[in-house]
């Protein structure tokens, strides 16, 4: 059953729509560096909080990737949007891959950032869900920053790092844990050849959570997909190397348009 996710819409009413989807343990705020450049280039930007995150409702688990994708389709329907460009990072990228496989008529193009079609590490995800349910997210939030960013970026931006860590620390326990359980057995690899949307895959060279090999699998599985690796970027590469990620996304969207 779909839910009405919290969302923010910015940009010209008649602009091509771009949907931005967040990672596990973050909110729509993670896309702040991309909003103004996209709007300035004429795009209408829809950001939303994945179910169980930010200001969106927190239904009891389990969640499936089809639930997350269904929430997006319901959002587009409510907003009267027939099709949109879709850019997602990590869990958001997986949501985009599912949408491109299962609702291709609604996906004008796909940008899959720092993500995977098959995350693996089943036991790690299940253990993390168990830990979060028992102990909360404070410990997970501290560890997340070390996965999200390179140490030089953390050292140079301590206030931003602390603010982004708080974003994870305040994620609802059930939402985070249920998404961990979703990731534990997710496998979108078999459906990659079905994707016809123009696709850009971006990986961070220093991403230890989902290294570039994960992105390469997606790009190799989708006919005509472009694959880019951004240096000095860990898992939240869209924030750490905002300029490079934003330019790649803009070039892709303009090429499709």
Structure, described:
The protein is 47% helix and 15% strand. Helix 9 (212-221) links the parallel strand 6 (199-204) and strand 7. It has 257 residues and is of the alpha/beta class. The mean pLDDT is 97. A 7-stranded mixed beta sheet has the order 1-3-2-4-5-6-7, sandwiched between helices.
Number of strands: 7
Strand order of the largest sheet: 1-3-2-4-5-6-7
Q: Which of globular, elongated, flat, extended, rod-shaped describes the shape? A: globular
Percent range for β-strand residues: 5-15%
What is the H-and-E element order? EEHEHEHEHHHHHEHEHH
Helix-strand makeup class: alpha/beta
Low-pLDDT residue intervals, each spanning 5 or more residues: none
Biggest sheet descriptor: 7 strands, mixed
Classify the helix fraction into a percent range: 40-55%
* Rg over CA atoms: 17 Å
Mean of all residue-level pLDDT scores? 97
First-residue to last-residue Cα separation: 33 Å
Helices, by number, come to 11
Give a brief outline of the structure.
The chain is of the alpha/beta class.
SSE topology sketch:
Elements: E1 7-10, E2 17-21, H1 32-40, E3 44-48, H2 65-79, E4 84-89, H3 91-102, E5 107-113, H4 122-135, H5 138-148, H6 151-156, H7 158-169, H8 173-184, E6 199-204, H9 212-221, E7 226-230, H10 237-240, H11 242-256
Helix pairs in contact: 1-11, 2-3, 4-8, 5-7
């Amino acid at each position: 059953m779909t839910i009405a996710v919290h969302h923010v819409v910015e940009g010209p009413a008649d602009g091509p729509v771009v949907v931005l989807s967040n990672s596990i343990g973050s909110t729509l705020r993670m896309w702040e560096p991309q909003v103004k450049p996209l709007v300035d280039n004429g795009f209408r930007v829809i950001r939303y909080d994945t179910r169980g995150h930010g200001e969106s409702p927190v239904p009891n688990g389990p969640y499936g990737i089809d639930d997350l994708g269904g929430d997006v389709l319901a959002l587009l329907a409510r907003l009267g949007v027939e099709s949109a460009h879709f850019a997602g990072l990590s869990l958001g990228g997986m949501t985009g891959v599912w949408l491109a496989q299962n609702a291709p008529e609604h996906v004008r193009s796909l940008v899959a950032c720092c993500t995977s079609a098959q995350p693996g590490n089943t036991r790690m995800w299940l253990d993390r869900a168990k830990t979060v349910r028992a102990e909360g997210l404070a410990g997970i939030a501290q560890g997340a920053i070390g996965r999200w960013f390179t140490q030089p970026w953390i050292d140079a931006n301590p206030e931003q790092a602390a603010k982004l860590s708080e974003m994870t620390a305040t994620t609802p326990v059930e939402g985070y844990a249920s998404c961990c359980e979703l990731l534990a057995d997710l496998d979108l690899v078999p459906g990659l050849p079905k994707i016809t949307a123009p696709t850009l895959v971006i990986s961070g060279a220093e991403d230890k959570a989902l290294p570039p090999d994960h992105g390469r699998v997606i790009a190799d599985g989708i006919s005509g997909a472009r694959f880019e690796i951004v240096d000095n970027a860990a898992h939240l590469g869209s924030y750490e190397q905002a300029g490079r990620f934003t330019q790649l996304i803009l070039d892709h969207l303009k090429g499709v348009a």
